[in-house]
Q: What sequence folds into this?
């Protein structure tokens, strides 16, 4: 089958917990990069997409009893608070964001622990009140749109991992992110 | 709610065990039927867990036309439960015990107590309203992927139990660790597994 078949259930739980930081670093990176790039990102194989963090940024630092968290509800003054939280060493653990391709726009929440789209609002490609195509047609369209969205999230995560696991992460990417964060003071 | 209409909560799984090559109608129908939902509306059961049709949660006939949609197979997990507050059981038991004493002139022994409690519970369960939980499930055959339109540990456990009992195929939940291992090239896997958290802010 694939690599995952070799992971025993108990080992899976350990691995899941051990690598949640990658979800946190990914969300943090994605937010900063979307801000730096004016919400425009180029990903493979989809090409150009628009992506912006819309609301409910949750940032955390520490673990267990030492955990500190802050939630910033909307852009503006609260985003400045989120920048401060990043400069205090916090990382993003959950956020609501929007993704737009040439023709479609999704709203979703992403959590660092799973990176599976939640609270998904689908593009308006059909009129739900008129039940165009009937429930089966709507379901198949939603399934196609969900596949498209998960593929976009996967492409973003893959791009992040390739950078994160390369010398360029420490060499150029972290300094770039820090330069931007410093400029937001 | 979720995959048909409304806002969606989602859990993704990879099917990590080889399913039968053709995933025939006979295979899928047979397993779904064997684990289909059994109605407990008129019986004193506390819980019933099983599959119902994707678009009709009252039916569990599983003709292929109701679960096959091109390369997808879709069905819905249905869990009906009844809960009785302990205080309610105690109140009705006290009434029954008084009746018993009035009739036989003595307190019930431990065996009689147990029987009385079971009778009271069965009577109350029959009258208690059912709570129904539905979780849409989609199996993407080509991708060896399963979508569960639900999130949270409790719901995942219920689904995983029924899935395992039905198909006996192992699932691996897709989370940063497992998704990452699938997405990256073979030469990066060691670095991935060895990686540890690093600060973003270096100030």
A:
């Amino acid at each position: 089958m694939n690599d995952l078949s070799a992971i025993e259930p108990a080992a899976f739980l350990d691995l899941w917990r051990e690598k949640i930081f990658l979800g946190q670093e990914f969300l943090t990176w994605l937010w900063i990069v979307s801000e730096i790039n004016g919400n425009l990102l180029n990903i493979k194989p989809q090409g150009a997409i628009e992506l912006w963090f819309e609301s409910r940024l949750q940032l955390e630092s520490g673990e267990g009893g030492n955990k500190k968290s802050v939630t910033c509800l909307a852009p503006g003054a609260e985003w400045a608070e989120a920048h401060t939280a990043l400069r205090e060493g916090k990382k993003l653990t959950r956020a609501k964001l929007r993704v737009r391709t040439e023709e479609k726009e999704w709203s979703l929440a992403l959590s660092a622990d799973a990176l599976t789209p939640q609270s998904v609002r689908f593009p308006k490609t059909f009129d739900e009140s008129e039940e165009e195509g009937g429930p089966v047609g709507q379901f198949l369209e939603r399934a196609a749109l969900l596949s498209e969205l998960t593929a976009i999230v996967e492409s973003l995560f893959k791009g992040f991992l390739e950078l994160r696991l390369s010398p360029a992460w420490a060499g150029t990417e972290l300094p770039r992110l820090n330069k931007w964060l410093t400029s937001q003071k | 709610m979720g995959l048909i209409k409304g806002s969606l909560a989602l859990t993704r799984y990879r099917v990590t065990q080889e399913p039968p090559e053709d995933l025939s109608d006979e295979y899928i129908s047979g397993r779904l039927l064997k684990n289909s939902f059994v109605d407990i509306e008129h019986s004193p059961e506390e819980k019933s867990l099983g599959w119902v049709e994707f678009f009709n949660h009252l039916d569990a006939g599983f003709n292929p036309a109701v679960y096959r949609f091109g390369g997808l197979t879709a069905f819905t997990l249905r869990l009906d439960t009844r809960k009785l507050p302990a205080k309610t059981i105690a109140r009705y038991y006290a009434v029954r015990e008084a009746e018993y004493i009035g009739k036989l002139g003595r307190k019930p022994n431990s065996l009689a107590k147990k029987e009385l409690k079971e009778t009271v519970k069965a009577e109350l369960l029959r009258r208690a309203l059912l709570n129904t939980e539905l979780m849409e499930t989609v199996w993407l055959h080509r991708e060896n992927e399963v979508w569960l339109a639900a999130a949270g540990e409790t719901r995942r456990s219920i689904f995983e139990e029924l899935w395992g009992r039905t198909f006996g195929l192992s699932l691996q939940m897709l989370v940063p660790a497992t998704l990452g291992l699938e997405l990256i090239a073979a030469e990066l896997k060691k670095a991935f597994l060895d990686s540890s958290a690093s600060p973003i802010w270096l100030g």
Remarks:
- Chain B has two domains: 11-81+130-194, 86-126.
- The first strand of chain B starts at residue 11 and ends at 15.
- The CA atoms of residues 12 and 151 of chain B lie 9 Å apart.
- Residues 86-126 of chain B form one domain.
